[in-house]
Amino acid sequence: MDLEQILLENIAKNINYTGSGRGNFQQFSRTKSQRKSHGHALVGAIQESLPDTRADDYLSEDPGTYLEIISEEGFPLAIESLDTKECKLCNVRIEGDREYATIFLLDDRRQVFINKVERYRQQADGTRTHSKLFDNIAEIRLASLRDFWTSHPEDFPDENQTIWWEVWLRRRSFQRVEVQEFLSFCESNRIQTGAGTLEFELQTVLAVRANITQLRASLTLISCLVELRKVTETGHFFLAQSPIDQREWVDHILEKTSFDDNTSTSVLIVDGGVNYNHPLLTPVLADKNCSVWDMDWPKHDRLNDHGTRQAGITTYGDISAAATTNEDIVVNFCLESCRILPPAGIHDRELFGSLTYFSVTNAEQINPNFNRVISLAVTADHDGITGQPTSWSAEIDQLTYDGDGRRLFVISGGNIRGADVSQDYQENTSRFGIEDPGQSWNALTVGAYTEKVDVAEHQYRNWQAMAISGDICPTSRTSVGWGWRSEAPIKPDIVEEGGNLLVSPDAQDITNADCVSLVTTSDISNRNLFTDHRETSAATALTSRIAANLWAKYPDYWAETVRGLIVHSAHWTDSMLEHRDRAAASGLRMKESKELMLRMFGHGVPDYEKASSCSHQYLTLVVQDTIKPYKLKDGALSFDEMHLVDLPWPSDELLALGNAPVKLRVTLSYFVEPNPGRRSYSQRYRYQSYGFRFKLINQNEDRDQFVQRLNVGVRDEEFEGGQADGRGWILGDQLRTRGTIHQDTWEGGASELALRNSLAVVPVAGWWKQRQSALMSAKNEERVSYALIVSLDVGEAEADIYTPVETAVDAANAVAIDSRV
C-alpha cells in the first residue's frame, strides 16, 4: 500500500437543521390530600434546617444553607428544578434505589423555594403546583459533609483521619472569587493545600489535606462547595529487569535509523522522567525538552525507569524486532518528557489533572508549533463509580478540546496487579475496570492483547503461555464491569501488543519472561542498555509511535483525524471474535455479545499501513471540517447546522463488480468540552457539550429524501417518512454512537454501494444546548471540528477504485483554482 489518502476540502454543505425531541419522566403517584400532608412535612423540614443568623466570619457574599434532597425509592428527582435562581445544584448521587441531590439554598431567595412547596401543599386550581418536583421527594434535611462525597462511599474517611481531598467549587464569577474564599478558609483552619488548581467552565478543583472536623466548618462559612472526592494515587509500575548487555545491538540499530532533525511532531511522555543519555534516546530527546513538576527533582528517576522504557518502544517499537531485522528505521518525530512522579519518600499530593496541565503547557512553551502526542501510561484507582469522569480525565478532555487540533492524548487502560492476576484470565480481565484517566472521552485509550505465545527460553521449556495468540493480555483491564456503562464511552478504543505470562507445568506458578515480553531501553545508570517491558504501558508506547508516524506523514491533519485513522484501521483477531461468538452461543443477545467484545478490545488492533496509506483496492477519503451545532433562538440554544457530504465515488467500478463482497467503513471523530460535576449526567447536566452522528443514504433513496428523513425543518408535504436501512452494519446505531469516536463497517455487494455516496453529519444535544450560564462564553457562535473518514475495500478483486476518485478530485481542485484566479 503506497498511495496517499485523499483529503477532501470544502466538500461538506451546510444545511439548517431541526431535530426531533423526546423524553419521559417517571412520577411518584400521590393523591391531592397526600400532597397537602407531604407538602406540610417538607416545609417543616426546610424551616427546621435553616439557621436564624449567620456567623460574623462568613466568607461568601451570597450566604445560604446546604440541603439534602432524597427521592422516593425507585423514582428520579426532577434535577433541573433543583438548579434555579433560588437554589444551586451541587451534586447528585445514587445509593441503592434512591437518588440524592445536594443543593445550596440562598438566604435571600429561600422564601421563593418555600413558596413553591406551599403552592404544592395547597394544590389550588389554576396555579402551578410543582407536583413533578415534590411528588418524587421523600425527604429534605440539612446536608452533612458526607453528602458532598461522590467517590466510593466506603472510602469516606473516619472522623479524625487526615487525607487528601479533591474539593470542587462552584464558579461564582469570571475572576473565580470562590478560590480565594476557600483558600482563606483553609488558611484560617490550618488546612494544607496543593499547588495546582483545575479550571473548568463552571467548576474549580483544588487539593487539600484535612480531616472531617476541619472541613465541616466550610458548610457554614462558604457558599461555593459542590463536591468532595478522594485524591487518587497512581499504581507504581516496577518490573524485574532482564538486561541484555549488547552494545552491538545499539550500534546496529543506530546505523540503520534515520532521524528528522526538523520535525514538527513530538511525543510527550508524561511519567517519571526519561534518561536522555541513553545512546538510543539521545538522537530524539534533548535536555531542553525535558521538564519536571518540581524543580528540585532530577529530570529522571533512577529508581523508576518506567518513562525510559516507554521512550524506547515509542521510538523504535519492540527493540527485539528492530534489532533483528534488516529493515531501515525512520524516526520522523522527536520526544519530550515531563516528570510528574515524585522521588521516593515524598508524599505530598497534587491533582493529577494539574500535573498533566503543567506537562502539556510547559512543553508547548518550549516547542509552540508542534503537533503533539501526549503519551500517558500512569494510571490510578477510580475514585467513584467506574467509568464516570474524574477531575483528571475531565482535565484531559478539556486540554484536548482547547488544543486547536494539535493535542492528542494516548492513555493506558491500566493493569491488573499482584495477587489479582489469575490463570482464568478471560474472566478475570472482565472483573477489573479500566483505571483513571482511561475513561477520558477525547483520549485514545489503549488496552493490551498478545501474539507472544512461543516459549523460547530454556529455563521455561515446559511452561505454557497463558493467553492464546490474538487474545487479551492476561493483565489488561476492560470496561466490561464498569458501573457507569449506560452513559460512558466504550473503552478501550484499541489494543496493542502487551506481552503474555507463562504458567508452570503444574499450573501452580505464573511468571513473565523475556520471550513473551517486549524489549526496550533501560536506565543506563546500572550499565545495562536493554530491559523488558509489557502490559498496557508497552501497548500505549506502541500506539503513541503509530500516532506520531501518522502525524509526521500528514502534518496538516488534526488530532481528531489522527485518532480517527488509528481506530479506523483496527481489526479484531479471530480470538477476539470468539469472545463474541461464545457469548452469543451462551444465550446473550448478539448486541450484548458484540458490546462485550468491544469493552474488552475496543475496535481491535490498529494497522499502520491502513491508517496511513491506500492501494488501488483500498481507498480512504478524509474530510476535516467545522460545524456550528447551535444557534440562539428565542433566548435559548437550538440546533443550527447539519452537514451533507457528497463523496467522489467509483460508481462505475462498483457496478462492474456486481455482487462481489466489499466493505465500507465510516469513522466520525470529534472532541467535546467536558461538564465534570457529578450532577446526574442527564439532560442539561450531560458530560459532553454536544454530540454528532453520521448517517448514510439508503440504497433507493434520493438526496432530497435523505435530507428530509434526517431534518424535520426541511420536510415538505410530500414527505412520506422513512427510516435508516440498518442492514449490513456490523455494530449498528446503538453500539457505534457511544463517546466521541463512532466507527462502523458495512458489508455487502459492490453494486449496492454504487450510488450510496452521500453521508450526513448531524448534531445531538449536550450540556451547551440545555445549560446556559452568565459565566459561560457564548456557545451559539462556536464552530467545532470533526473528522469524517470513509474507506472502501474491495479485497482481492481486480478493480481500481482509487484512480477514478483521484482523477475526479484533481479535476475538481483544478476548477476551484481556476475560479479563484
Please outline the major beta sheet: 8 strands, mixed
The stretches of 5 or more residues where confidence is low (pLDDT under 50) are: 235-245
What count of helical segments does DSSP give? 21
Helical coverage, percent range = 25-40%
How large, in whole angstroms, is the Cα Rg? 28 Å
Structure classification: alpha+beta
Mean pLDDT: 89
Number of beta-strand segments: 34
3D shape: globular
Jot down its keywords.
eight-stranded mixed sheet, single chain, 26% helix, alpha+beta, five-stranded mixed sheet, 821 residues, 34 strands
Structure description:
The chain is α+β, with helices and mostly antiparallel strands. Helices cover 26% and strands 24% of the residues. The longest helix has 19 residues, at 535-553. The protein starts with 5 loop residues before the first strand and ends with a helix.
Brief rundown of the structure:
This protein has 821 residues and is of the alpha+beta class. The relative contact order is 0.11.
Task: Reconstruct the topology from this structure.
Layout: E1 6-8, E2 12-16, H1 32-49, E3 64-71, E4 87-95, E5 98-106, H2 110-122, H3 131-135, E6 137-142, E7 163-170, H4 177-188, E8 192-199, E9 203-210, H5 212-216, E10 225-230, H6 247-255, E11 257-259, E12 265-271, E13 290-292, H7 306-316, H8 319-324, E14 329-331, E15 334-339, H9 352-366, E16 371-376, H10 391-401, E17 407-412, H11 425-431, E18 444-450, E19 464-465, E20 471-472, E21 494-497, E22 502-503, E23 510-511, E24 518-521, E25 530-533, H12 535-553, H13 559-568, H14 574-585, H15 590-601, H16 608-612, E26 618-627, E27 630-633, E28 636-639, E29 641-646, H17 651-657, E30 661-670, E31 691-696, H18 703-710, H19 733-736, E32 741-749, E33 758-764, H20 767-770, E34 784-793, H21 802-820
Parallel strand pairs: 1-26, 11-14, 12-15, 12-16, 13-15, 16-17, 17-18, 18-21
Antiparallel strand pairs: 2-29, 3-5, 3-6, 4-5, 7-9, 7-10, 8-9, 18-20, 19-22, 22-23, 24-25, 26-34, 27-28, 29-33, 30-32, 30-34, 31-33
